[in-house]
């Protein structure tokens, strides 16, 4: 018989689980998705500065593909689809938004973070649809990618206005 708490079914010593829970940020409460997005923002800014936009976008695409596996494997091991502690998808989502900001000023970084969280939490159409209908690692990842695309569209509009 499995233990009640799904978190007891994973180990941070397992690199798949460690990455899926955002290096442990997804284990913070309240709001693990926000903590995961915050750490993802910090890592994303550092990587973007070190790698440049083109290489960062390639890395982000690779993180998406890897994330489909990481999130599915961890969800399977937990016995829960898209448990709140799985935040690798937030990392990838916020990476996408950061790649679109006009500059790495604190104002744009903060805007990227807030817009991504807003769309990830509200889940406007079709985000909620995909979140509810796709029960796979791809499904865990894709709703955050769509939330990121919405945030990127708002950033483009804000950049025109500002």
From TrEMBL:
<dbReference type="InterPro" id="IPR007686">
    <property type="entry name" value="YutG/PgpA"/>
</dbReference>
<keyword id="KW-0997">Cell inner membrane</keyword>
<dbReference type="InterPro" id="IPR036681">
    <property type="entry name" value="PgpA-like_sf"/>
</dbReference>
<dbReference type="GO" id="GO:0006655">
    <property type="term" value="P:phosphatidylglycerol biosynthetic process"/>
</dbReference>
<feature type="transmembrane region" description="Helical">
    <location>
        <begin position="46"/>
        <end position="70"/>
    </location>
</feature>
<keyword id="KW-1003">Cell membrane</keyword>
<keyword id="KW-0442">Lipid degradation</keyword>
<protein>
    <recommendedName>
        <fullName>Phosphatidylglycerophosphatase A</fullName>
        <ecNumber>3.1.3.27</ecNumber>
    </recommendedName>
</protein>
<keyword id="KW-1208">Phospholipid metabolism</keyword>
<feature type="transmembrane region" description="Helical">
    <location>
        <begin position="138"/>
        <end position="161"/>
    </location>
</feature>
<keyword id="KW-1133">Transmembrane helix</keyword>
<keyword id="KW-0472">Membrane</keyword>
<keyword id="KW-0460">Magnesium</keyword>
<comment type="function">
    <text>Lipid phosphatase which dephosphorylates phosphatidylglycerophosphate (PGP) to phosphatidylglycerol (PG).</text>
</comment>
<keyword id="KW-0595">Phospholipid degradation</keyword>
<dbReference type="GO" id="GO:0046872">
    <property type="term" value="F:metal ion binding"/>
</dbReference>
<keyword id="KW-0812">Transmembrane</keyword>
<dbReference type="GO" id="GO:0009395">
    <property type="term" value="P:phospholipid catabolic process"/>
</dbReference>
<dbReference type="GO" id="GO:0005886">
    <property type="term" value="C:plasma membrane"/>
</dbReference>
<keyword id="KW-0443">Lipid metabolism</keyword>
<dbReference type="InterPro" id="IPR026037">
    <property type="entry name" value="PgpA"/>
</dbReference>
<comment type="pathway">
    <text>Phospholipid metabolism; phosphatidylglycerol biosynthesis; phosphatidylglycerol from CDP-diacylglycerol: step 2/2.</text>
</comment>
<dbReference type="GO" id="GO:0008962">
    <property type="term" value="F:phosphatidylglycerophosphatase activity"/>
</dbReference>
<feature type="transmembrane region" description="Helical">
    <location>
        <begin position="91"/>
        <end position="118"/>
    </location>
</feature>
<keyword id="KW-0479">Metal-binding</keyword>
<keyword id="KW-0378">Hydrolase</keyword>
<dbReference type="Pfam" id="PF04608">
    <property type="entry name" value="PgpA"/>
</dbReference>
<feature type="domain" description="YutG/PgpA">
    <location>
        <begin position="19"/>
        <end position="158"/>
    </location>
</feature>
């Amino acid at each position: 018989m499995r233990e009640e708490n799904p978190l007891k079914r994973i180990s941070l010593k397992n690199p798949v689980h460690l990455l899926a829970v955002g290096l442990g940020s997804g284990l913070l409460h309240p709001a693990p998705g926000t903590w995961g997005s915050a750490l993802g923002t910090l890592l994303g800014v550092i990587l973007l500065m070190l790698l440049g936009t083109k290489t960062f976008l390639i890395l982000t695409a690779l993180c998406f593909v890897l994330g489909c596996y990481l999130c599915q494997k961890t969800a399977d091991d937990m016995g829960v689809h898209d448990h709140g502690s799985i935040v690798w998808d937030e990392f990838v989502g916020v990476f996408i938004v950061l790649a679109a900001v006009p500059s790495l000023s604190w104002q744009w970084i903060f805007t990227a973070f807030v817009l991504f969280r807003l769309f990830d939490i509200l889940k406007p159409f079709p985000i909620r649809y995909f979140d509810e209908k796709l029960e796979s690692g791809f499904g865990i990842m894709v709703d955050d990618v769509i939330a990121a695309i919405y945030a990127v569209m708002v950033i483009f509009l804000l950049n025109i206005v500002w």
